[in-house]
Design brief:
Number of domains: 2
Helix content: 25-40%
CATH architecture of the largest domain: 3-Layer(aba) Sandwich
CATH superfamily of the largest domain: CAP
Pfam families: CAP
Strand order of the largest sheet: 1-3-5-4-2
Structural class: alpha+beta
Distance between the termini: 81 Å
Order of helices and strands: HEHEHHEHHEEEEEEEEEEE
Organism: Labedella phragmitis
Number of helices: 6
Protein name: CAP domain-containing protein
Keywords: Signal
Largest sheet: 5 strands, mixed
InterPro entries: CAP_dom, CAP_sf
Number of strands: 14
């Protein structure tokens, strides 16, 4: 390859802003996680210098970015993903989605972020104060890079409400009236007089003989992008036979 072509490859970068919603799994090269973390760290350093909040990582954004980096590497072409493609993969509930930066030919996280920061459109994505989360993909075959940006509301969940008879052999049901973002994962833990019940990790619980004379509660936790929020129900009446 001539010197001119090498320069073109190094300077080839792209930008896209669109929309998105659900999630998938991508296969990343063995060392891609460390590389992705470096890109996120350097990106957040630039945001801090410019008075922006740090972006958090989110698994569906990472998987989507990695899938597209793998695609570009396999085809040998640098091209943007489409709105519809991302919309079928990124976690639901984004209030703003999705900015995309792509590049190829750069051999280090520092070099690719430096190039993006020198480009008006890419810099705008990196410094956009509306974004809250970012995913990164990298494939060393051809050195293809992808950043995907999105904004998600703060993680929240309502207090769980219980229904059912507080008697041995009956099932108690726990429900929440809402949580955010829509792509957040909910987990449950039941307690008897404040002590966690082993294995009771669903939204339904079969009342046991060992719980007679105790009051039960359930805690629900909403998790998204490494941030968790928990709420605990009011206690049941004293459990009876």
């Amino acid at each position: 390859m001539s010197r001119t072509l090498r320069l073109i490859a190094v300077l080839a970068v792209g930008i896209f802003v669109g929309s998105a919603s659900a999630a998938t799994t991508a296969s990343a090269p063995a060392h891609a996680e460390t590389t992705a973390q470096s890109v996120i760290r350097i990106t957040n350093e630039h945001r801090a210098v410019n008075g922006r909040k740090a972006l958090k990582t989110e698994w569906s954004l990472n998987n989507t970015a990695q899938t597209w980096a793998n695609h570009m590497s396999s085809t040998g072409r640098m091209e943007h993903s489409t709105n519809d493609w991302r919309a079928s993969r990124v976690a639901k509930g984004a209030s703003l989605c999705c900015g995309e930066n792509i590049a190829y030919g750069y051999t280090s996280p520092g070099a690719v972020v430096k190039a993006w920061m020198k480009s008006t459109g890419h810099r705008a994505n990196i410094l956009d104060s509306r974004y809250t989360h970012m995913g990164v993909g990298y494939n060393p075959k051809g050195h293809f890079w992808v950043q995907i940006f999105a904004a998600y509301p703060a993680v929240s969940v309502t207090v769980p409400q219980l229904s059912g008879m507080s008697h041995v052999g009956y099932i108690l049901d726990a429900r929440v009236s809402g949580f955010a973002p829509a792509g957040a994962a909910l987990s449950w833990q039941w307690y008897a007089d404040g002590v966690a019940i082993s294995g009771a990790r669903g939204s339904r619980h079969l009342v046991l003989e060992s719980q007679v004379g105790k009051r039960l509660t359930v805690r629900v936790t909403a998790n998204f992008g490494g941030t968790s929020v928990s709420k605990t129900s009011s206690p049941t009446p004293v459990i009876k036979r």
